[in-house]
Design a protein that fits this description.
Rossmann fold, 10 strands, alpha/beta, seven-stranded mixed β-sheet, 266 residues, globular
Length: 266
């Protein structure tokens, strides 16, 4: 996508700064991203910590792609804490990319790259399959339709390695929220886990190109992995919530299977 071809088609975000934080906004009432100035690589918003619970299913992904840069919270976190992971970030808005230095997003190197592009186009022809695909793409009007279509989620499935994980941030209050979840279920053959956000507005969806439960490593919620103590203390509640949601889903499916089996036997 040419750098200047459609620059005027994108809304320019602004940075709101306090004594302890910087945040990225399209409107003052909606935070796109927030950074602690004293801990720029930390995940300050709860939903981003929930998204990182993907590590419960793959603690050391080789290749990870992100659609949506924002203030770079997830990108910076992964760059710091997943040193053996190749990371590619696709962001459509050139004004957002222009703020990368403002938010301390690392420079491109052999394992970390930020590229301007349309996320929907990226998954139609990704140059290599990935182990983890994180979708957190929002614009001035909210969730772009191109990142919520059935075709998009089908393409996400095709972009993943076998047993790869898609992680999607969805607005729970969106009029079409249930439609979006249904589309993900259809693309991923119902191998989907929905975790309501702690803030009641962002729900995180984990979808697997395979089966989630065998990939789950329960020992991770009892240890720090590669994190310092403060970071782990921040992540652990969200990791527990995701693990609990998975166990509840497993129990519900087993109960439903038992009921259906009983009906069939009669």
């Amino acid at each position: 996508m040419p750098e200047s071809a459609d620059i005027h088609d994108h809304v320019k975000p602004f940075v709101y700064e306090t004594l302890h934080s910087k945040s990225l906004h399209f409107t003052i009432s909606q935070i796109q991203s927030r950074m602690q100035t004293q801990r720029p690589d930390a995940l300050d918003l709860d939903y981003t910590r929930t998204m990182m619970a993907v590590l419960l299913f793959n603690s050391k992904p080789r290749n990870l792609a992100m659609i949506g840069l924002g203030g770079g919270s997830l990108a910076k976190f992964c760059h710091r804490h997943l040193p053996d992971t190749r990371i590619k970030v696709v962001e459509i808005n050139p004004h957002v990319i222009a703020l990368r230095d403002e938010f301390g997003i690392p420079c491109d190197d052999q394992r970390f790259k930020v590229r301007r592009g349309d996320g929907a186009v990226y998954v139609q022809g990704a140059p290599y399959p990935v182990d983890v695909l994180m979708v957190d793409g929002f614009d001035y009007e909210g969730q772009p339709p191109a990142l919520c279509s059935q075709r998009f989620y089908d393409d996400c499935y095709d972009t993943l390695q076998p047993n790869g994980i898609l992680v999607v941030n969805l607005h729970a209050w969106h009029d079409s929220y249930e439609v979006f979840v249904d589309r993900i279920n259809r693309s991923f053959e119902n191998e989907v886990l929905v975790v309501p956000g702690a803030d009641c507005s962002n729900n995180i969806v984990f979808a697997c190109k395979g089966t989630l439960l065998p990939l789950f490593d329960p020992s991770i919620v009892r240890k720090r992995l590669q994190f310092d103590q403060q970071t782990w203390d921040e992540l652990r509640p969200e990791f527990f919530r995701v693990a609990s949601a998975l166990m509840k889903r497993t129990e519900n499916r087993a109960r439903a299977s038992s009921v259906n089996g009983g009906s069939t036997s009669r």
